[in-house]
C-alpha cells in the first residue's frame, strides 16, 4: 500500500507544489498587473517553471530516501541494543538478560508482554549462527523457512526474492522502452540495474558485510541496506524520468522549441501589417518578460527588414532596367 501511495505522490505532488511555488514567487516579485510578469506558456514562464519543478523533484527524492530509512522497523540488534558490527555472543547474553528483566511480564505486567516475546525471538535468532547469517542477509521472513537447515538452504531460498525483483524491474524497463516511455537515460538505467543486481548478489553470498555500504549506512543490517537501495533505485528512476528531459532536451524537443518560436515570429509578422495597434500589441505579448526571446526577435526582425530592403532594391533596379529598355527601344 505504501508503494502505491509513493507512486501517486510522484505523479501529482511535484507538479502541484511547482504551481504553488511559482504563483507565490510571482506574487512577491511582480506587482499586480505588472507588464514584466511572464505570461503563461511563454518561454520565460516555462523556464522558471522547469527550474522550480527540478528543485521540487530533487527535494522530494531526498525526502523519500530519508523516509524509507526512518520508517525501517526495529531489527533484532536494535531491540537488544547491540551494534550490528560490534556483535558478540557475550554481549548478546548480557543484553538479553537485562532486557528480559526489564520487560518481564511479572515486572511490567501485560503491557510489556509483546516486547518480551520479541526480545526472546531476537535472542533465538542471533544466538543461532545459521539463523543469524540468514537473518542478516534476507531479513526476518527467511527464518520462517522450515525446510532450511543450512546457510546454503537459506541463500537458495532468499535468492528467489532477488530474482523476482530484478526480473520484474528488467521487464518493466523493457516494456517502457518498447512503448517509448521514459526514453531519457534508458541505457544507463539498464546498466545501473545490472550493477545493483551484481552488488546485491555479492551481499547475499558473502558472510561479511561490504564495507563501503557499512560505512555509508553503519546502523543498518545487510537486508536493510538492500531494501534502502531498492527504494533509492526506484525513486531515482522516477525522478530522472521526470527531470531528465528538462535538463537535457532531446533533438525532437529542440526542434519543437525552434518550431514554436518560428510560429510566434510568423504570427507577429502577420499582425505587424495590421492597422490595429491593439493587435500589434497582443502579438508582442507572447514575448513579454523574456529578454532572450526579445533579443532573438530583434535579430529576426532585422533580418526581415534587410530582406525587405533587398527586395525593394531589386524591384527598383528591375523597374529602372525596364524603363531603360523602353527608352532604348524608342
TrEMBL record:
Which UniProt key words apply to this protein? Chaperone, Membrane, Transmembrane, Transmembrane helix
Q: Which GO terms describe its biological process?
A: ERAD pathway
Family matches, as InterPro entries = DnaJ_domain (IPR001623), DnaJ_domain_CS (IPR018253), Hsp70_co-chaperone_J-domain (IPR051948), J_dom_sf (IPR036869)
Gene Ontology molecular function: any one: protein-folding chaperone binding
One matching Pfam family, short form? Answer: DnaJ
Q: Does the keyword GTP-binding apply?
A: no
* Residue ranges of domain J in the record: 75-139
Q: Which GO terms describe its cellular component?
A: endoplasmic reticulum
Transmembrane residue ranges: 159-180, 187-207, 227-248
Protein's name according to its UniProt entry: J domain-containing protein
Q: Which organism is it from?
A: Modicella reniformis
Q: Provide the taxonomic classification.
A: Eukaryota, Fungi, Fungi incertae sedis, Mucoromycota, Mortierellomycotina
Amino acid at each position: 500500500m505504501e508503494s502505491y501511495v509513493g507512486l501517486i505522490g510522484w505523479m501529482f505532488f511535484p507538479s502541484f507544489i511547482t504551481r504553488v511555488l511559482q504563483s507565490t514567487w510571482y506574487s512577491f516579485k511582480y506587482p499586480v498587473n505588472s507588464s514584466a510578469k511572464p505570461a503563461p506558456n511563454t518561454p520565460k514562464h516555462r523556464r522558471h517553471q522547469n527550474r522550480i519543478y527540478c528543485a521540487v523533484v530533487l527535494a522530494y527524492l531526498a525526502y523519500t530516501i530519508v523516509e524509507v530509512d526512518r520508517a525501517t522497523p526495529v531489527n533484532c540488534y536494535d531491540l537488544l541494543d547491540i551494534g550490528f558490527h560490534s556483535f558478540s555472543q557475550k554481549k548478546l547474553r548480557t543484553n538479553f538478560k537485562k532486557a528480559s528483566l526489564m520487560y518481564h511480564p511479572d515486572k511490567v505486567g501485560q503491557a510489556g508482554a509483546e516486547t518480551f516475546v520479541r526480545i526472546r525471538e531476537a535472542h533465538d535468532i542471533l544466538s543461532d549462527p545459521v539463523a543469524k547469517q540468514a537473518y542478516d542477509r534476507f531479513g526476518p521472513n527467511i527464518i520462517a523457512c522450515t525446510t532450511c537447515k543450512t546457510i546454503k538452504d537459506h541463500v537458495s531460498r532468499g535468492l528467489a526474492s532477488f530474482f523476482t525483483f530484478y526480473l520484474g524491474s528488467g521487464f518493466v524497463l523493457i516494456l517502457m522502452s518498447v512503448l517509448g516511455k521514459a526514453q531519457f537515460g534508458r541505457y544507463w538505467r539498464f546498466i545501473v540495474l545490472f550493477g545493483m543486481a551484481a552488488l546485491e548478489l555479492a551481499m547475499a553470498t558473502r558472510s561479511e558485510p561490504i564495507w563501503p555500504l557499512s560505512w555509508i549506512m553503519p546502523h543498518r543490517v545487510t537486508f536493510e541496506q538492500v531494501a534502502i537501495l531498492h527504494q533509492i533505485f526506484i525513486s531515482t528512476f522516477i525522478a530522472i524520468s521526470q527531470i531528465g528531459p528538462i535538463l537535457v532536451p532531446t533533438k525532437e524537443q529542440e526542434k519543437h522549441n525552434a518550431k514554436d518560436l518560428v510560429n510566434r515570429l510568423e504570427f507577429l509578422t502577420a499582425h505587424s501589417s495590421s492597422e490595429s495597434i491593439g493587435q500589434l500589441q497582443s502579438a508582442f505579448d507572447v514575448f513579454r518578460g523574456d529578454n532572450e526571446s526579445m533579443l532573438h526577435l530583434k535579430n529576426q526582425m532585422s533580418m526581415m527588414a534587410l530582406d525587405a530592403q533587398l527586395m525593394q532594391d531589386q524591384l527598383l533596379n528591375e523597374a529602372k532596367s525596364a524603363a531603360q529598355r523602353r527608352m532604348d527601344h524608342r
